[in-house]
C-alpha cells in the first residue's frame, strides 16, 4: 500500500501569514473573557468541541453524546475545500476543549489548528492509513475485492487481513488516473471510519476525564453501527452486473476498494479541477466497455461536466454524495442515512439483483 504524507488538494484560501495574524487577533480577543474554570467549556458547561467539517462533526457528536457541544467550522452548503475562516473562528480554536479534524482536506484549517497550539486536537487521518489514489481506483484487485467476477462476494469487509486493511498491497498497478495524491476520504469506507473512533474517544477523554467511560462506550456503539452499515454494503452489492461507476471527483476510492468496485472519476481528487480531453475520451471508452449506465454527481459541486458527459453518452445521472456536508438537498438527515442512499444509488447503477 502507498502510505503518503498529507498533500493539500489545493492552495489554502487563507495564506499562512494571514492565518497567523488572524489567530493572534482572535486569541487576544478571546483571552480576556476566558477563565480557568470556563476554558474548554461551552455556555451550557459541556465540553466545547470544534469539528472541521461534517464527517468530523458526526464523529464528535456520536462519541461525545450528551457531554459535548459541537461546533462545525464548515456551515451547511459550503464546499469544505473552499472554507474561508473568520478571525474569531480561528481564535476560538485555542479555547476549544477539543478539536476533531482531518488533515489535508482544508489547508487553512490545518494551519489555524497548528497556530492554536490546542493540546486536545486529533487529526483522524493519523488514526488510519491514507493511500495515494488517482482518477481510477480498481478495487477488484484488493483484499476486499471480488477478483474478476461480477457476481462474487467481497471478502469480509468488516475484517481486514491486518489491523488497517490493505497494507500489504501496493497500489502502483491499480491507480492509473491523473490528478492523483493522498486521498483523505476515509469516512466513505465504513470500516476505515470505524477505525478512527477509538482515537477520537481517547482525545475527548483526555480533555474531559470525568466522562471517559461514556466516551469509550459511545465509541463502541458507533463502531457497531458502522459495522452494520458495512454489512449492508457488502450484502447489497452482491450479484451485480457491473463493477464500474463514474463520479465527478475521486471521493469514493476507499469505498471502491472495500467492496471490489472500480471508481472512474472525471476530475480526480480535486472536485473543481477540469478534466483533460484525453480523460473525457477515456471515459467514453470505459463507459461503453464496462456497461456503465449512470454518471454520478454530488450535491456541493457543479454537476455540469457530469451532465454533459451523460448527455453525450446517452446515460442517466444520479447523486452519489461524498458526505462533506448535510443540506436540505441531502438524501438523508445524517451520515448513515446518506450512506444508505448512496448504496441504493450504486445498486441501481450497477444492476444488482
UniProtKB/TrEMBL annotation:
Residues 1-34 form the signal peptide. Pfam families: ZnuA. It comes from the Bacteria. The keyword Cell membrane does not apply. Residues 135-182 have a biased composition (Basic and acidic residues). This is Metal ABC transporter substrate-binding protein. Belongs to the bacterial solute-binding protein 9 family. GO terms for molecular function: metal ion binding. GO terms for biological process: metal ion transport. The lineage of its organism: Bacteria, Bacillati, Actinomycetota, Actinomycetes, Kitasatosporales. InterPro entries: Bact_metal-bind_prot9 (IPR050492), ZnuA-like (IPR006127).
Amino acid at each position: 500500500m502507498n502510505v503518503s504524507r498529507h498533500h493539500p488538494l489545493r492552495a489554502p484560501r487563507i495564506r499562512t501569514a494571514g492565518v497567523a495574524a488572524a489567530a493572534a487577533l482572535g486569541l487576544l480577543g478571546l483571552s480576556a473573557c476566558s477563565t480557568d474554570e470556563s476554558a474548554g467549556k461551552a455556555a451550557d458547561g459541556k465540553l466545547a468541541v470544534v469539528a472541521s467539517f461534517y464527517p468530523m462533526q458526526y464523529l464528535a457528536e456520536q462519541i461525545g453524546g450528551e457531554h459535548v457541544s459541537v461546533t462545525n467550522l464548515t456551515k451547511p452548503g459550503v464546499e469544505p475545500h473552499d472554507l474561508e475562516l473568520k478571525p474569531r473562528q480561528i481564535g476560538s480554536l485555542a479555547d476549544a476543549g477539543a478539536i476533531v479534524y482531518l488533515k489535508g482536506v482544508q489547508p487553512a484549517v490545518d494551519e489555524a489548528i497548528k497556530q492554536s497550539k490546542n493540546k486536545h486536537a486529533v487529526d483522524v487521518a493519523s488514526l488510519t492509513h491514507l493511500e495515494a489514489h488517482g482518477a481510477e481506483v480498481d478495487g477488484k484487485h484488493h483484499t476486499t475485492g471480488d477478483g474478476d467476477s461480477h457476481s462474487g462476494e467481497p471478502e469480509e469487509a468488516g475484517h481486514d487481513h491486518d489491523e488497517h486493511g490493505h497494507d500489504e498491497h501496493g497500489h502502483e498497478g491499480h491507480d492509473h488516473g491523473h490528478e492523483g495524491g493522498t486521498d483523505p476520504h476515509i469516512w466513505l469506507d465504513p470500516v476505515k471510519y470505524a477505525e478512527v473512533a477509538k482515537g477520537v474517544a481517547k482525545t475527548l477523554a483526555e480533555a474531559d476525564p470525568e466522562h471517559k467511560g461514556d466516551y469509550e462506550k459511545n465509541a463502541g456503539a458507533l463502531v457497531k453501527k458502522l459495522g452494520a452499515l458495512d454489512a449492508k454494503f457488502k450484502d447489497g452489492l452482491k450479484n451485480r452486473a457491473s463493477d464500474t461507476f463514474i463520479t465527478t471527483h475521486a471521493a469514493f476510492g476507499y469505498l471502491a476498494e472495500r467492496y471490489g468496485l472500480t471508481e472512474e472519476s472525471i476530475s480526480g481528487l480535486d472536485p473543481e479541477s477540469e478534466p483533460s480531453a484525453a480523460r473525457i475520451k477515456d471515459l467514453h471508452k470505459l463507459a461503453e466497455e464496462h456497461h456503465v449506465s449512470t454518471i454520478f454527481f454530488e450535491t456541493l459541486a457543479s454537476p455540469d461536466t457530469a451532465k454533459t458527459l451523460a448527455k453525450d453518452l446517452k446515460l442517466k445521472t444520479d447523486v452519489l454524495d461524498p458526505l462533506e456536508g448535510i443540506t436540505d438537498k441531502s438524501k438523508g438527515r445524517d451520515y448513515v442515512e446518506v450512506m444508505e442512499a448512496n448504496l441504493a444509488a450504486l445498486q441501481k447503477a450497477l444492476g444488482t439483483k
